[in-house]
Amino acid sequence: MSKKKLAVVCNYILRTDRIGGMDRFFVAFDTAAKKINYEIDWFFPDAETFDFYRDLTVFSAEDKLTVEAFFLDHLTTSKAKYNGLITHFTELSTPFYKDAKKLGSIKQIIAVDHNPRPLNGFPLKKQLKNKLKAFLYSKAIDRFIGVSSYTAKHIVKDLGKTVSLKTGVIYNGIDTSVFKKREGESEAKTAYKFIVVSHLRESKGIQDLIDALSYLTDAIKMHIHISIYGEGPLEEDLKHQAQDLGVSELLEFKGSSSEIPQILANYDYLIQPTYMECFSLSILESLSANVPVITTTVGGNPEIITDGVNGFLFQPKDKTKLSSILTDIVKGDLKITNETSVLIEKEYALDRMVAEHINLLN
Fold it and tell me: CATH number for the 4-175+349-359 domain, one of 3.40.50.2000, 2.60.40.10, 3.40.50.880, 3.40.640.10?
């Protein structure tokens, strides 16, 4: 039986210092696809070569072109033909899909949407542009997949009801086996360790966390320490903000780390004050480590966090509420005693995510 050829185009940079949930999904999906007679060519914008991806056939644009343009160039120069194309982290309903389908004689295109929406929605001009793109190019896409119900709803909102019948949901999943689990508390605590795992940009709302810390009383501050893992353009501004507000001693900027699955268990709560989110892998990873989550009500967050059960929710930009949550945790008035990992192992495991994506090929 001849093998089927599949291309996966991902606007996602592979890095040795960041092996996260999507990296594990890509490798697991490649393995599962091979078992049903698919060969996959993977296309990334800038891919470091390292052992984790040793079994994948990886093509790197090396920042010379966008990954979409690089793939179209590959189709033109190599004359490669594919049975299917899957995209991750790319813009939906653009000329790319129509061009790719034609150049690669591609029978099925699946667009997986991981892209968060702005807190206040798209401006009118962008909304009209989305509708026009849907009219011109959405026919080239056979399936739209949102990584949460929130995302699927917004695919239809952005592109119009004509795409609703071919829009579905596959929730993100993680490899729960790689996460060390936090042990339950056996006695009253006198100090609380919080962790932030995030790209350091404005939309992640970490500036609000720093403001919220400045609202705390000195008696509460002395019981709090926060480690921030991640890099980004806002890092220096955040450090200056913390210094100006007199809370820098509560924060430690740790940079990127590939050891997050082991590190999480050392903390009491994950804080994610984000303005925009589809369905956060960081939240799934934290819960898998039995670490409850303090986060905002945006995107798919309320689909996984139940307030008071496996974390605490607050409205985005509500710094006063965030400060209140931190205060009440330290005072012992708020506490999560449930085992948060059970839900993740049952509903959001990597094997389920991979199987549902494989089913799209059948």
Answer: 3.40.50.2000
